[in-house]
Request: fold
Amino acid sequence: MTNIHSTAAQMSAALAAKEISSVELTQQHLDRISAVDGDVHAFLYVDTEGALAQAKAADELRASGKEISPLTGVPLALKDVLAQKGVPTTCGSKMLEGWRPPYDSTVVTKLKEAGVVILGKTNMDEFAMGSSTENSAYGPTHNPWDLTRIPGGSGGGSAAALAAFEAPLAIGTDTGGSIRQPAAVTGTVGVKPTYGGVSRYGLVAFSSSLDQAGPCARTVLDTALLHEVIAGHDERDSTSINQLVPQVVAAAKKLDVKGMKIGVVKELSGEGYQSGVSQRFQESLDLLVEAGAEIVEVSCPNFEYALAAYYLIAPSEASSNLARFDSMRYGIRIGDDGTVGAEEVMRRTRHLGFGPEVKRRIILGTYALSSGYYDAYYGSAQKVRTLLKQDYERAFEKADVLVSPTCPTTAFKIGEKSDDPLAMYLNDVATIPVNMAGIGGMSLPCGLAPEDGLPVGFQIMSPVMQDDRLYRVGATLEAALLSKWGKPLLANAPELAVR
Amino acid sequence: MAAISRDEVAHLARLSRIEMNDAELDHLASELDLILGAVARVQEVAQGDIPPTSHAIPLHNVFRADVVKPSLTPEESLSGAPATEGPRFKVPQILGEAE
Reply:
């Protein structure tokens, strides 16, 4: 019998077999949200009416006999950085409190066309800047594995919604790891597609050359099903790649890695990586070898500079992108008392509208782009970006995919790193190189660290527009782990109190 | 010697149109000093004639057909505005502002 613990693929089958309606399935998830989200706080807005209306329409579409998507009628949680017409979209910021976009992002358009039911908007670090969701202006999200810990970030709300069984599918966005790191620390699956694989139209920009929306779910196959719904060329995004979408669903069903070469990135291991993280990663490599893959070691010597380059490029682009929040055309306006001019109103609004991390990055980016410092900082970072691409090119000559732990540690305590930006930035050390080179990346759960019983993420990286390789390797590893464990990893998560 | 002074941070805040009080400026100056110390590492390898990369996947000459398509109505465009007057955005005084 289908319930909230089922996979999206199982829900799809149950809907097709008329064992359940989308309205019933959607109501089950809305009930679950009411019961547990007071503790988890994955959602910033629950669109009860809208979701039930979409579910009703999905049921009618299924009954009509027209061609439908496998995900028609399956519920989904949407990260609050993507515009959905008429539904509050805050990006986790006070700046956009109360804003209801007059248009749909392309991701939302595609979800609606497929009949996917959007339950609501999920919590995130303000403007997607962070690794813990603590930077949300609306309070942190709590990790369902341990409510005192962070769910990762910036897409902590989407990942927590999956792990808390509030939704079987979610959309995230990943600029330096904001899909993969939350997936890793919540025991869920997340994919950052190749840059340009999914349209950025209607995705509120943080760092335009790095931002990429992607699918999140509890299994590799569910993630693939969602990937095929949202991917594809869009003329409204000039960086959208005009090529066929990689066949990720077929790849997720292949369950065969015989003859594949899997490259372990030497630089993404060792010092700084928690022992249980390294242990589970190693065990996963052994399983891939048993499944017929060949493991090779690759070296990417410039990866040690990736974090530094990222924290120049991303803030620089952010300082430019966030200039649009000027209190003139949308968003909040503060201090317009008739005695001061527009610039003073902007200053007052941005003072109260932005949180500390956003201000820190705007100032850092403004500095890196200043004349006199531009070559030393932003210019140097762009050169490092070239070196990172070259590292990947060389590594992919030796291996079909590259792998590493997704992040150095398991979920840390809420508040533990909030006063230390540099320590916080280190969470993304293994995920950032992927964004810098524009390639595809996946995180899937590979066990619990023995020392703390918390989920560990296994990261797979694929060359540009070869995202299908992520799913081929990921699904094979997932199947091997499942047969070893006898049950999904999330079955080990503590029961949440139902209120 | 600090990489960035409190006065420089104040200047950057002015450029960024963000009002900051003294406590914020002090805090941010010390934090940025640490962060800049860490990110300056890029200079160790970014030597010589390495070409810069601005976009990982460069696309050139992306055009679309020059045809009129449905768009937002004036009402929709103004729907999120903090203040409007008729079919216009209403903004604070922009000329002759005292600095």
Observations:
- Chain A has one domain: 8-303+385-492.
- Chain A touches chain B through 70 residues (CB under 8 Å).
- Chain A has a mean pLDDT of 97.
